[in-house]
Amino acid sequence: MDSDVNIRHSIVTDLEGSILTTSHREAITNYLSQEETEASLRRAAIAWKGRKELSPKIGKGLYAVAAFEKITRITFPLGEENLIFVSMGSDAVRMDLHEGGQKQIVQHVLNILSRDPTKE
Predict the structure, then answer these.
(1) Rounded distance, CA 101 to CA 68, Å?
(2) Which residue in 17, 61, 89, 98 could disulfide with 42, CB within 3.0 to 4.6 Å?
(3) CATH class for domain 7-113?
């Protein structure tokens, strides 16, 4: 959350999509109810498991992006048993042009997950 002002919230789930922890930026209103969020995360976890089945042929999944008019959600594997979902405002609604865009946020999160936040 502290790495970029455009990140709205982040959620860690298990591979079933059950929420383990959440971080939410103050003064941001969720578009989805808690039940809608949980259902969306379960669907995304199922899709991630499908990608994982293809990894022997195409390699391990690094991240997946789901872009909507109001938000962009990026899913990353977190170890072998968990996922992290990072939600950011869509480019059309982001106001701080000095902060990272989708590409910079993806790279930064990948660096953190590799345990080397300085890696380019």
Answers:
(1) 15
(2) 17
(3) alpha beta
